[in-house]
Amino acid sequence: MAAFFSDLAQQYIDGEWRPGTGSWDVIDFNPYDDEKLASITVASVDEIDQAYRAAERVQKEWARTSPYARRAVFERALALLQEREEEITELIVAELGGTRVKAGFEIHLAKEFLRESVHLALAPEGRILPSPLEGKENRVYRVPVGVVGVISPFNFPFLLSLKSVAPALALGNGVVLKPHQNTPIAGGTLIGKLFEDAGLPGGLLNVVVTDIAEIGDAFLEHPVPRVISFTGSDGTGRHVATVCAAHFKRAVLELGGNSALVVLDDADLDYAVDAAVFSRFVHQGQVCMAANRVLVDRSVAEEFTEKFVAKVRSLPVGDPRDPATVIGPVINSTQANALSSVVEQALAEGATALVHGSVEGNLVAPSVLTDVPEGSGLLRQEVFGPVVFLVPFDGEEEAVRLVNDTPYGLSGAVHTGDIERGVAFARRIDTGMFHVNDGTVHDEPIVPFGGEKHSGTGRLNGETTLEAFTTTKWISVQHGRSGFPF
To answer: Would you list the DSSP string of 42-79?
Structure first.
């Protein structure tokens, strides 16, 4: 595994693996035991330019390549992913502190998105539209945007990088990928290696490991990319959107959330408990769709709370390499300290800790808090870790109001014995996604994924990916001669 990290601890620019020339190094640590995994000298502004120029140069030929030939690259990449699944699992466990269950979940979805990219290569279609002018033929072509810049997060880096990289390439674009500095391998150079070995032309996909401290906004402002696909916090997303707008670029923003899982009075409580625990604590709660809040009808709140707390207390916390572990480390000490501050703030505001998890290094055990005052800002913000707020409510009207009382609108779920009651409830919630009798954490290759309000703009997956990474071009043909007024 050590050799695997060292081999990928480089920049991948214009088909070459090479060290960066920036002024400092990214040190890649295992968040569980602080083992140094790799050291990567960051890419400079000049190397950002080289990466984008390489993608621009190679993309033109790639776009002219038969989509059937492009499709073959993704078929080989999928085969390689399947061959290397155990190795990639170990990498995710080491670099992210993800459990083996989490790694399996992430790799399974990554394979599904690669399969969809195989089909996506053949998806663009043109149209012929009628004209009011005699002899005029209007052809509308769907064409690649050119080059796409992708910025991925640390929580599901392999999947969330592939979600943009693979479809953008399949649709005929070039790509420059900048992974999060906490996950430069799983979210970056691993993907470069996968596509290199699958036969992708050199220079078409570039991976630059760097940070705003070195390059400022050069990744966003560069004149080559026409679309920036960013997944991360809403604060950074606001900055990305502002810079993109100033440079007439399209921004696809998949941002944070403050999802609620709602338990109505006719819900199957045992099933709702299972869904709520998974929705909050999968990957230590470091998921944009995670259920920060669990809202329970007061008539069933006592029974639900007793079962929920018991299940949370039973979750094993520890070494993510242990197959029995459910709660591994959060990504770094900054995140661990922030979560401790959230719990302490809630208690200072009058909340009750039904479970008060300990913090040892980056291991943050679950906390379950109730009686948080309704006006508390904690109920409206994203909490990225294993802390959950239990909130009782009286009737559906209050539940709808509470769920919507947040600047975010990404995901959510409702549990009820009446499916149509659940659908009617879901339609009243201001989110991009909502699930009836299930968890809040879902992603599927052909279903539009994205949020409302501060949770982002644009959608990915399926047909919406065509909108994200292609554009339309109108070419008219005049059969015969037009008449002109002068």
So the answer is: PPPHHHHHHHHHHHHHHHHHHHHS-HHHHHHHHHHHHH
Burial class (CB in 10 A: 0-12, 13-18, 19+), 376: middle
Catalytic residue flag (residue 244): no
Q: Which tens digit of pLDDT belongs to each residue from 63-92? A: 999 999 999 999 999 999 999 999 999 999
**Taking the CA of residue 59 as centre, how many other CA atoms within 13 Å lie in the half-sphere pointing to its CB?**
26
The rounded distance, in Å, linking the Cα atoms of 31 and 35 is 8
Q: Hey, what are 18's tokens?
A: 């090479």
Q: In whole angstroms, give the CA distance from residue 311 to residue 329.
A: 19
Catalytic residue status for 288: yes
- In one-letter notation, the amino acid at residue 456 is G
Rounded Cα distance, 426 and 80, in Å? 40
Among 47, 55, 18, which residue's Cα sits nearest to residue 205? Answer: 55
Report the SS3 class of residue 347. Answer: helix
Q: How does pLDDT run across 163-203, given as a tens digit for each residue?
A: 999 999 999 999 999 999 999 999 999 999 999 999 999 99
Does an H or E element contain 238, and which?
A: helix 234-246
CA distances from 57 to 105, 137, 142, 460 (A): 36, 32, 20, 26
Contact assessment for residue 303 and residue 154, using Cβ atoms and an 8 Å cutoff: no
Q: Which among 254, 349, 444, 463 is annotated as catalytic?
A: 254
Instruction: From the candidates 288, 302, 344, 397, give the one annotated as an active-site residue.
Output: 288
Tokens of 121: 């290569």
